[in-house]
Amino acid sequence: MKKLLITTGNGMFGRGLVNALAGSGDVEVRAMVRSLDAFDVDAANVSAVHGDMDDPATLAGPVDGVTDVFLCSPMDEHIATREIAVIDAVKATGADVRILKLHGAVNHRGDPLSQLHKQSIEHLEASGLRWTLICPNSVMETSLLPLSASIQFGGIAGTSGDGKVGFVALEDVAEATARVVAGGGFVCESVTLTGPEAVDMAQVAQAFTEVLGKPISYTDMTEDDFAKMVIEFGAFPDREACEIGVLCHYRAWRRGDADVVADGFTQVTGRAPRSVKTWIAENKAHFES
Fold this sequence. Notes:
alpha/beta, Rossmann fold, 7-stranded parallel sheet, about 290 residues
């Protein structure tokens, strides 16, 4: 049986993978969390363990005895430091462990986020450990759920021009990753996960219009004006946090570097991924509240 450590058991991707594997008879899940009290998944094959990627001394216990590690960390300036600490802890066990590292499919062309992931990937490749890169395009939960407040006023805003994005649903990322863990394939390979088509934000607004039954418009803004708006709204404390959290993504979209559509999900699961319109319909209540 596979024994999988998930480094962010309460994070978006980590919890999604925990949920996808809960009840599985093929994978034993160990969810690493900072606070055991904050973890509430009840399944026979799922357990929680304390560990903190900011404190390498706490990592030896969580990595002991696992066959696979899903490596994901919060999206900030500490990505490389945290992930390298986990890689080193795994290597120190001397065991034959595979690391499945989350690395987005969007080309960030050397921006700070890209450089952080590059450091982590280079360290992983040099470690001698088996690895697989799980590469989702921009995820609908992070890209579209935050639009719910502005949708109440009939519009959404951004700074992506007419750049298209192969948006993918978190549940599809989790399902495909769970299959890769259980199947054990794709060693030293990348699995690119996207939706069925690439769409721009005007098309996203049209999908909202059709599903919600009311007109939703898209307003494209300059990067500075958009940054000022979201910081004043309280979404980010400053421009630096806004850069890593959203601006670098919109900038990549505008350049066309998220216009990626791949068959990775279908290859792994045997079915088509969710479209933006399907995902909005599944989350309709969220956008109507």
